[in-house]
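chain below, 620 aa
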Amino acid sequence: MNPPVSKQGFGIGASLSRREDDRHLRGRGQFVSDIRLPGLAEVVFLRSPHAHARLRSITVPASARGRVFIAADLPQMQPIRVVTQATGAKSPAWPPLATDKVRYVGEAIAACIAPSRAEAEDVAASVEIDFEVLDAVVHAPAALSPGGPLVHDQWGDNLFIERAVGGGDIEAAAREAAITIRREYRMRRQSGSPLEGRAVLAYRDYRLDEVVVYVSTQTPHTVRVAIAETLGIEERRLRVVAPDVGGGFGPKARLYPEEVILAALALKLDHPVRWIEDRTEHLLTAAHSRDHQYKLTAYANRDGRILGIETDIVVDAGAYGLWPQGPYQEANMAARTLPGPYTIENYRARTFTIATNKGPLGPYRGVGRPGATFAIERTIDEVARALGRDPVDVRIANMIPTAAMPYVSVTGMHYDTGDYAACVRLCAELLGVASIRERQRRGEPDGRLVGVGFASFTEQTAHGAAEFASRGAAIIPGYESCTARILTDGSLVLMVAIQSHGQGLETALSQIAYHELGINPASISVRHGDTETSPFGFGTFASRSMVMSGGAVARASRSLREKLMRIGAHLLQCDVAAVTCAGGSVLGPNGSVTIAEIAKVALCGWTGCPPGSSRCSRRS
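prediction:
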């Protein structure tokens, strides 16, 4: 069925019904939990009930032998380790199944297998573990105190990394300040909780000599890289498939121990295995986020102008670093983005990323920026309160003026455009702030308090190579790929490396191809999520898919259009400069030829192609 035509046609900006919605609304999507294979066994993980403990012994009853796997049973698995170029950063080895110690509640100790989840849970309950419970590190600011418990004994402390960010002359700002505001803020730990939890299914394909891993992930290609490295197998022998994914929000953009363990089990066993995360497991073991503490000092003059900000930022990163970026990005992003939309010329931030006996920290909805935004916006309110001024006016007075665009902040962030003051003024006008202030002065008849608050923020999207390089990352997702392939009937297949998990990318990417080629989106298939068929790329996160994958689709489509026009011009017996591509055809001075006709000639009738033409596919 063709999508409805809007005034903009089918292209960029057109309002189309999302192609992927039909299968989901009819219950015909395919998630990992929908996949059924002969001989499939379910996996349940025996997890630590303690935040910190030594493993003295693990006793498997005779009735469960062959169905319980500990680290020693899967020697092919190597510890997961984040490689970073960041100066002074520590990167602990993370065994997928715990060996000597457990370092957070929920850490996997054993994988238990049975025909059903309930039976596997019974197997797990039959295993006995002798723990030596240790004191746990639970409060990040206190974790650096000498003499306390250590998460990783060999470190000698609990510090992942310490960094400094800033510029200008903060001491001069302090001397010149008429008022000084000192505050402490905390943003609590959070869980991503997508509609579909994590899920993995793995089996051995003997015909192709490969392990196939179905996984609910935002990043299938990099997950393949990591599993192959951890298991010591060639990537050609590992196929990762992300089918329909029920939400991600960032936590599914990392490698997890469960994905490595299931692949290792598939190599060892002669039948498929599957693990479906339950909600308790998700809350305990999927990437946590936030957990920041700020000590912030603001220096301002009597007009409310911020002369300088200095801050200490402590990030509770949990026990391990999730591959590939580790725990280092949270504090770095918070420190660099804290100045927000304000002209803060003097700034000093010290960041401390702390190891504690909690689940690992990972990306979720704006990595580092929510905490930083909360800290600076609350501080702007405090400056306004100290001066007796309206927070709206103080915000506007400190915002980057449009005349300064493009603007580079004191932390090196590049702002291309924006009129932040105008946004605040418009918001105040729409809310009727003047009348609200009058109500506040009068007071409410029933004694209730009426409040109104403002917060502004700047958002990074589609991070390029420079952002990841600034973090010392070894994996730098600076590009995306697309293979665009015309078939003999003129239909188009776009193979992309991003992974849609609710954004409607199958629809949006087909609109970009339509914009470039004029092929109806109903005749365009977008294929993603399978490392066997899609070109290499880094997946969907950080609001990057439409910028990077959309750009790759546009470039591939333009390259394909040039080839279609060359062949079309040859068939029309005219110069290529005289033809255009529109409406699914190549149009010349004296006629036209459809893309389907061109594709049939190019793929099946080589004698009709001009010299130098090749198959009608192009990768960009």
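Residues 1-7 have pLDDT under 50 and may be disordered. The domain at 482-619 is CATH 3.30.365.10 (Aldehyde Oxidoreductase; domain 4).
thats it, cya
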